[in-house]
Amino acid sequence: MSGYIGEFTALLFLSLALGLDAFSVSLGLGMQRLRLKRVALIGLVIGVFHLLMPFIGIVLGQLISSQIGHLTTLAGGLLLVGIGCQMVFSSFNHQAKKIIQPIGVGMFLLAFGLSIDSFSVGLSLGMSGVKTLVALLLFGVMSTILSWVGMFLGRKVRGFLGVYSEILGGSILVAFGLRLVFG
């Protein structure tokens, strides 16, 4: 019985660690003027990607080497840097239309970039024999909840920071993307 509790606790902390990435980026996203329906949808999409990417990693873990994890992490980091830079630059030019917004394809690109590290975790989990369904559900639920919390806190901070909130939000995305790229 204590083995199951220990495994569940380890998976809970791992899902919290993966979800904190989504939280920090969502904090920046929440500083944009997003409607509550959009916040709910973004959180759900991020959660689904945090469920799907480790699943794909677990399935492909037997077929590919661990070297592919480094390439996907680099791609995800560069994607987040690009989105963050676009947010910062568009905050200086209020007439410029945003290229990437957290709607449509932009929302899926954002969720993909955030869940890249979950793919790498899935690769290693596939070889360790953990309870796959429990791990996937924890990853999805935790990242969804932390995304929502981050966006709601970002909405509150936006009121305090005013015009500078979009610069801060973009800076958070750039910083997280650079952390993925450079470790």
TrEMBL record:
Matches recorded under PANTHER family: MANGANESE EFFLUX PUMP MNTP-RELATED
Q: What membrane topology does the UniProt entry give? A: Multi-pass membrane protein
Gene Ontology MF term list: manganese ion transmembrane transporter activity
Q: Which organism is it from?
A: Virgibacillus massiliensis
Membrane-crossing ranges are 12-29, 41-64, 70-92, 104-127, 133-154, 161-182
Q: Which HAMAP family does the record cross-reference, listed alphabetically?
A: MntP_pump
Family as reported in the entry's similarity comment: Belongs to the MntP (TC 9.B.29) family.
Localization recorded for this chain is: Cell membrane
Name residues in a coiled coil. none
Indicate the principal place this protein occupies in or around the cell. Answer: membrane
Which keywords belong to this entry?
Cell membrane, Ion transport, Manganese, Membrane, Transmembrane, Transmembrane helix, Transport
Quote the cellular component terms of the Gene Ontology held in the record: plasma membrane
The gene from which this protein is expressed is mntP
Q: What is this protein called?
A: Putative manganese efflux pump MntP
InterPro entries to which the protein is assigned, alphabetical: Mntp/YtaF, Put_MntP
Physiological role: Probably functions as a manganese efflux pump.
